[in-house]
User: Fold these one by one.
Assistant:
Number 1:
Amino acid sequence: MTEARRLYVLLCGYEILHKTVSTRDRGGRYIMAEPICAYLIQTTKGYVLFDAGFNSYNVEDPFRRAEYFPRRHGGYPPIVEPQHELLTQLEQIGVSPKDVGEVVISHSHFDHTGNIKHFRHARITMQRREYEFAMNEAVPSDAVIKPDFDYPDIHWHLIDGDWEIVPGVDVISTRGHMPGHQSMAVLLPKSGMKVMPADAGDLMENYDEEILPGQSVDDDSARAAIVRLKRIVESTHGEFLLTHDPVLIQTTKLAPDYYE
Ligand SMILES: [Zn+2]
């Protein structure tokens, strides 16, 4: 029994990274162009947005660009073309931001929080540990752009662990890459289980070979998250939809097309 009806994959741009950002100690000489995805789930109870892409203003504005993407290791600015803008894609589907009542954020890195500003009417769910980490003044991460989500009028919904939004749409706690990282699993009526790990593992390689993400706050938890997500896919004969895999994205149905 599932309340999910459709799943749209929103390709929100690309980021330029050293491969070691995605795979621990692997591929030190390679630079990757990795997609940035967000997901819109239509349910019988309304729309759920999982992750919020990248805020293109952070690269268009010269001051923000210089502050957040100085030219150094890992500091290449993302590429967002007009077709990648999250609101443009929602418009193509015929969905207004106001139609989206639930937003779930996997973690506080800038490629997942960029468009939160458009959903201040909605309920925004983050793991409590992640929120506390992200709102801490002394955030030890240059991948968090606090002005993208530090608005006083946001309706935060802070959770501890797993959460069923509606039957068939589940938030799965996958801490490790970040203190309160979370993933999503959606059971669709025709195409079955889709598991969206976000950054628990960026690439299929992370799951096929159980390779840790480049960065983690707790390696044991990060490894357990990868194993847990694999088991969900295997036990349900489901499929991964990966946020950052540049090969998988080429065979993924992109909005306005959808999975049902
Ligand atoms: Zn990411």
Number 2:
Amino acid sequence: MTSTAIITGASAGIGQATAFLLAKKGYNLVLAARTSDRLEAVAKQIKELGSQVLAVPIDVTDEQQVDSLVKKAIDTYDQVDILINNAGICMTAPITQTSLDDWQKILNVNLWGYIYPIYTLLPHFLSHHHGIIINVGSFGGKMPLPNMTAYCTSKYAVTGLTETLRLELEPKGIHVCGVHPSVTNSDFLERAVFRGEQEKSSEQIRSSIEEMLKSPLASQPLDVAKAICKMIDHPQAEVVVGTGAIATNFYRFAPSLSQWLLQQSITNS
Ligand SMILES: NC(=O)c1ccc[n+]([C@@H]2O[C@H](COP(=O)([O-])OP(=O)(O)OC[C@H]3O[C@@H](n4cnc5c(N)ncnc54)[C@H](OP(=O)(O)O)[C@@H]3O)[C@@H](O)[C@H]2O)c1
């Protein structure tokens, strides 16, 4: 039987690259994101690759819309095998420039936008004693990043969600995996909110990130998509994709020195 995967945030970047890779492998796909025309354009290309695809424009922060996504997926394909929680937003700002509205937005998309699909799909996975949940986190969910408290909080929460849920679900035949990208050359940072103490510093942050994206050290969405596909073929606890793997390992073994180095980068910026 052909396996079916739901991908959130499938209209762009990592989600889109993953959708194309899975389509080439013959999976049935259910694609979710807010912007209908972009999602339909991805679905059209996938149909041309010969795969079955359903495009469902939803906002992952709306529990009812997520519920309808999961219902449509099960009604269409009978069985869903894989959930790829990937829809996310980014913000860079010192804490003094982070409003409560910013906190709510980022936690709603990056955390609740992962909890709702898991909550809604879990009874289906449990009844089949089968399923793979892949949460796309971030290297910022494995180590702190300067002036990214709200973003890192959301991604550390995703790490906690992934690692703790795994304990409970692994014995029930459900794999829960974390794929943590490093800086990746998608539209993510173009769409991100950048705020500094002053107008000038937001521009500086934006242009230094743009420089970073042009460097060969940045990953491409396809690199992360390949890691996700590998996780589906051979489920493991987690992988950090790209150069962030070195930084997160360094942080794990030398947290105090890493904190000091990161503080210097804030002080000198
Ligand atoms: N790019 C990086 O440097 C980087 C680094 C580390 C981790 N990550 C993580 O990787 C994941 C994918 O990022 P990306 O780089 O592929 O980003 P991207 O190119 O900006 O794509 C984000 C996707 O999420 C969708 N999305 C955003 N808010 C949504 C909402 N409320 N409801 C439904 N869909 C929503 C977007 O479509 P709509 O706007 O149309 O809804 C789009 O399809 C994110 O979880 C991100 O945190 C990225």
